[in-house]
Every structure is written in structure tokens, then in C-alpha cells.
Amino acid sequence: MGREELRTAVLNKLKEVIDWEIGLDVVTLGLVYDIQVDEQNNVKVLMTMTTPMCPLAGGIMGDAEMKIRSIEGVGNVEIELTFDPPWTPDRIDPVVRKQLGI
User: Fold this and answer.
1) By the 8 A CB rule, do 93 and 31 touch?
2) Spatial separation of the C-alpha atoms in residues 100 and 102, rounded to whole Å
3) CA separation for the pair 93, 57 (Å, rounded)
4) How far apart are the first and last CA of the chain?
5) What are the boundaries of each domain within the chain?
6) Sign (positive/negative) of CA torsion 60, 62, 63, 67?
7) CATH topology assigned to domain 3-86
8) Strand residues in the chain grouped as ranges (E)
9) Mind listing the pLDDT tens digit for each residue in 5-40?
10) pLDDT 10s digits, 43-93
């Protein structure tokens, strides 16, 4: 699997990671800022939470790592949490924002 194919596979796996408080996946919520795949298929994901005080951050990040590790051919997996820039509802997928009336 090439790097871009692996990056797409990672993105698709992250769509299975649900923020249990909100009931939407981390990609739809706009919590995933960046996905990098290097030449050895090591994966680094830069993501945020809806709030720095999110009580589910550890579980969400653990679920993301587990799902990414399940992809055949993945090397090391690193999930980095950032709050710069801070998340806002504007990052939610536009279709979902409209459905939610945001």
C-alpha cells in the first residue's frame, strides 16, 4: 500500500472513532487536523478535542490508535493532541452543521 492509500485508509478508520458525548465521528467533527505517513508507513495524527477539559480525550485517542494499528502494513502510530488552533463548531462538516442547524 502506498503512502497516499495508507493515509486514506487511516482517514477512513478515524471516521469510525466516535466522540461518545456528541455521537459523531472525529473526522466529521473536524477534530483531525493532520495525518502524516512516512516512508516506513509510520503514522502521525494531529488532532484536538472539542474542549481542553474533554473527559473522554484519553478514550478517544486510544480508540483512534487502536483502529489505525488494525490497518495492515502500518508501522508506528503516534496521536498528538493539540489545542492550537482551538476547535470551534465551524470545523464540523458543512452538511452536518446544516443538519444540526448550526
Assistant:
1) no
2) 6
3) 20
4) 38
5) 3-86
6) positive
7) GMP Synthetase; Chain A, domain 3 (3.30.300)
8) 18-19, 24-25, 32-37, 43-47, 77-81
9) 999 999 999 999 999 988 999 999 999 999 999 999
10) 999 999 999 999 999 999 999 999 999 999 999 999 999 999 999 999 999
